[in-house]
Amino acid sequence: MKDDGNEMRQRSRTIRGLTGTVLFLLVAIGSLPVLSIAQEMLPETQKVFGKYSDRVIKIQLIEKNSGAKAVIGSGFFVDPYGRIITNYHVISKMVLHPDRYRAELVETAGEVRPLSVLSVDVINDLALVKVEVNGVPFFTIAAREPEQGTRLYSLGYPQDIGLTIVEGTYNGLMKHAVYKKIHFTAPINPGMSGGPTINAFGEVVGVNVRSRGQGISFLVPTEAAARLMRSTGAAKKDPQGFLEDIRSQILAHQDVFLRTTSSSQGRRSTSVAISCPANFPVSSGVGGIQSTRKITLTIPWTTGAPRMTISISQASSLQGSFVSVTASS
Amino acid sequence: MNDGMNSFRFSNLYSELFQDKGYSMPGNEEEVTGFECASGALRHGEVTFKTAFCARGYKKLRGLYDIVFKAAALGPDHSGLETELEISGVGFEKAAGIAKGYLEMITWGR
Predict the structure, then answer these.
(1) Which of A17, A257, B20, B76 is deepest in the core (most CB within 10 A)?
(2) C-alpha closest to that of B75 among B103, B39, B49
C-alpha cells in the first residue's frame, strides 16, 4: 500500500509537472494563449464577427421635428480619428434637407454621436463622414482583388434589428455594368447599406450597396472608397455646400459616359446609354433611391402580322441602364 | 389589315394616346419645377415622328433636368408606333442628344 501510495504521488507529481510544463509553454510562447486556441476552434464566421464587429457602426437619420428615424444604414471606421465610409444614399436626405434631418452614429455599445459629412461620391454611392472620437479600431482596405469563390463576410444592421454578419462568396465585377460593382452572394438587406464586406483577415473588399434578392447582392469596389478617403476636406458646416459637388459629379460623369458609348453607333443593333445614376438624389424615395428610367414602346392597333417588331432589352445595372432597340420585319 | 376602325377614329385615338401625360416621375414642387414641353416633328429615313420633349429642372441642382420624351409615327395601314423615354437627372443638351439617338435607332421593317 505504501509503495502504491508513493507510486500514486509520483504519478501525480509527474502529471502536475507535465501540466505545468504545458501551461508554461503556452504562456511562454504568448502568442497562443489558451483563449486563442479556443478561438481558433471557432467557426470562421464567428471568429470574424468577434474580431471585427466593433469597427462597424449604425447610422440613423432623424427627422428633427418628429424625432422619428427616417433612414437606417451602416458604416465602418477607416481610421482611428472617427472617419467612416458609408453609402451616399444613407445620408442623402440630410445633405439635401439639412433643416429637416440630422445624422447620428450609433455605436455597437449603443452610444449615439452626431455625425458630419466630409465628402460625397454620388456616382459610386459613397460618402465619407466623421464623428468626434479618437483611437477607435478601424478597417484597412484589401490590397488586391480576391479570387472568384473567396468567402467573404458582410456586416451591418439589417432593418434595424441589430448588428448582423452574413457570409457569401466573391464573384468578381459585374459584366456589362455601367458602373463598377462587385457581385457578392449573400443577402444584404435594407439597413446593411454602407456596411463593409471583408475577407477573413478583416480587410475591406467592398461596401454593401444593394441587393437584387435571393442572395444576389452588390458591393461598391474599394477603389472608389479609397479615393474618398484621400480627400482631405473638413466637414462642411452647411451640408448644402455639397450640392455643387453633386451637380458637377453627375454632369461630368454624363460627359464621360456619352463619349465612351458613342463608338457603338453605326451598328444595326445599337444601344443608347442613359447616363444617370439610379441613386440620383431625389429625396422623396426610400433612402434617396429612385428608379430613373422608364422605357415604353407600344404598337397600337396593329392587326395580323405587325409590320414592325421592336425588341427592347434593358440591361439594368446597379446604376444606369442600356437600352437597345432593334427593328426588324 | 385593320380591325374595323376607320381612319378618323384611328387618328383620334392616336392623338389622345399621344397627349396623355402618363408619366409617373416622382418629385414635388420643392425639388423640381413644372414640366415645360416643346412639340415638333423629326424625320428619320422614311419615318416622320411627331415629338414632344418635356423637361423640368431641379431647383437645387442647377443644370439637371428630368426629361419625358414622347414620339409617335404612323406606319402603313392602321399601324403606328408610340414610344416614350423618361430620363432623370440629366443635362438638357445630353437629354436632347439621347432622344435624337433613340429615334434614329427605330426603323420600319421591310
Answers:
(1) A257
(2) B49
